[in-house]
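hey so u asked for the seq, here:
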Amino acid sequence: MPANSALNQLPYAHLNLRHNPFGELSREELASLAEVDVESIVARLSVDRFAVQFVGEKGYGKTTHLLAIKARFAEAGYVHIPEGETAVLPGGRPTMIDEAQRLTLWQRFQLFRAAVPLVLGTHRDFSAELRRAGRTVETIEVEQRTDVHRLCRLLNARVEHVRRGAGLVPIVTMETATRLRREFGSNIRAMLHQMYVAFQELSEVRDV
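ran it, structure tokens below
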């Protein structure tokens, strides 16, 4: 079988991609591909007793923000608390808790009163509790950060990440990003699922 014919038998080779761009990514990949602005937050995380909380529903980008920040701090402590479970609080500076609404009351008491900078991803607004613990707090509503231009860059970065070689790859258009934003609001996870299905069915390299 000619080399080109063999290549064309590989999944997604017809799109010049190694696999579907919108499947699951590792934490490292999520951090490297994050289209989020965390510079002002990173600058403040050298201050003791500063806390930032990224508040929003599941799939809106809280974890992406946390992982983008974590990538900037070699000594950061990070834990994701699965639903229905408890977790050991990590050490590290800053201390980062994903799904912080699942912390126990005692863990919140300990953590919120600690001196280290704190980063939370949470469904619940802890502003009042953090301030009572003596912290300076910044609250970021992640749903307000789903800008259409940023979304379009994110989707195309995912495509580029799985490029197989030189040549054309499918491009996600601004029109598609706008439609996704209109249909799914700030639910990035739902948008990625929709794009996964679209790329499963894509038969040739073209604008999507």
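The domain at 33-145 is CATH 3.40.50.300 (Rossmann fold). The chain has a mean pLDDT of 91.
lmk if thats what u needed
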